[in-house]
Structure to design on (350 residues):
């Protein structure tokens, strides 16, 4: 017969083992929750950082083109700015801003949260496209007094750098190439200030740039309008046969709706400041051609495209449905600006 004292002594190790196991389990649970908390905090921090870096495409920051020109030239009196200084300063600032805004240039980033973002990279691409259009126009048209004039050396150097691929993250990086382009355009601006470079605010030069803009905005209007469910592939029947002269507009895939939207929005942000600069640099020729009204309408319509976005996602309702269609709204403003561009082109050609 086992004595009560021996039974008590045998139960003590068992109780100690149970306590140790419970302690170990509690420690593991605490470690598990701590790791989950750290992971959650990291995810929350990356989400907040990504949102902060993307604020610009939701509510873009506008700037005064004259103040930017004064900053680039080091002047304090706007009256001393030479013709073309504002347009060149905007061309410099728009690209430089992509690399100095919160988060910097994100399109070529390969680490979180940048690699998980798509709205801001598409917005950046729109700004790049607008800058490329202006750089080409400045090199080939706006800086030439006549068709036989030699091109400016620094403009010839700077323009190709703006056409460098947008997503190169190493050897060389996209930022390094864009900065070389910015440096070349700054050299041109310095020569313009010293009277050693040319900027010709002629009607025919502006007309050629306006034609580029009209085609670009027309393309954006079509791409944005294709986001509506009203647009489906249907053949145009003429005399009982499908027409080969008309290609039906394909509806934008759902995953590309916001890409097109933010690209167009970025282009319009850059174009808004470009047109404000052109209004100043081409003031005399615009007034002589009585073209102030279309210039003002273009600026007004493009400015409307920059209204703050209240929804965290780009809504894609049908034209007359319950929910809004952001793409159709943006396309409407761009179409109005494009119509004013055509009016401006007609007036300049008179």
């Amino acid at each position: 017969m086992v004595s009560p004292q021996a039974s008590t002594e045998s139960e003590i190790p068992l109780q100690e083992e149970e306590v140790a196991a419970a302690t170990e389990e509690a420690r593991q649970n605490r470690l598990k929750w701590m790791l989950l908390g750290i992971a959650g905090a990291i995810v929350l921090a990356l989400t907040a950082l990504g949102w902060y870096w993307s604020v610009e495409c939701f509510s873009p920051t506008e700037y005064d083109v004259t103040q930017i020109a004064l900053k680039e030239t080091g002047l304090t009196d706007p009256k001393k700015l030479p013709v073309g200084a504002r347009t060149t300063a905007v061309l410099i600032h728009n690209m430089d801003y992509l690399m100095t805004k919160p988060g910097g240039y994100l399109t070529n980033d390969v680490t979180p949260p940048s690699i998980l973002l798509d709205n801001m990279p598409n917005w950046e691409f729109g700004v790049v496209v607008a800058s490329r259009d202006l750089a080409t126009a400045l090199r080939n048209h706006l800086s030439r007094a006549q068709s036989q004039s030699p091109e400016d050396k620094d403009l010839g150097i700077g323009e190709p750098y703006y056409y460098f691929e947008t997503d190169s993250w190493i050897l060389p990086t996209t930022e390094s190439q864009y900065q070389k382009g910015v440096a070349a355009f700054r050299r041109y601006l310095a020569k313009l200030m010293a009277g050693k470079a040319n900027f010709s605010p002629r009607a025919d030069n502006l007309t050629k740039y306006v034609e580029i803009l009209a085609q670009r905005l027309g393309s954006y209007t079509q791409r944005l309008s294709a986001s509506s469910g009203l647009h489906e592939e249907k053949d145009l029947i003429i005399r009982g046969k499908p027409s080969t002269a008309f290609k039906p507009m394909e509806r934008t895939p759902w995953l590309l709706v916001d890409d097109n939207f933010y690209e167009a929005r970025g282009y319009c942000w850059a174009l808004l400041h470009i047109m404000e600069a052109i209004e100043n640099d081409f003031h005399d020729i615009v007034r002589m051609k009585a073209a102030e009204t279309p210039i003002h309408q273009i600026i007004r319509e493009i400015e409307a495209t920059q209204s703050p976005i209240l929804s965290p996602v780009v809504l894609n309702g049908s034209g007359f449905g319950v929910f809004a269609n952001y793409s159709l709204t943006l396309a409407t403003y761009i179409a109005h600006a494009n119509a004013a561009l055509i009016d401006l082109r007609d007036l300049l050609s008179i």
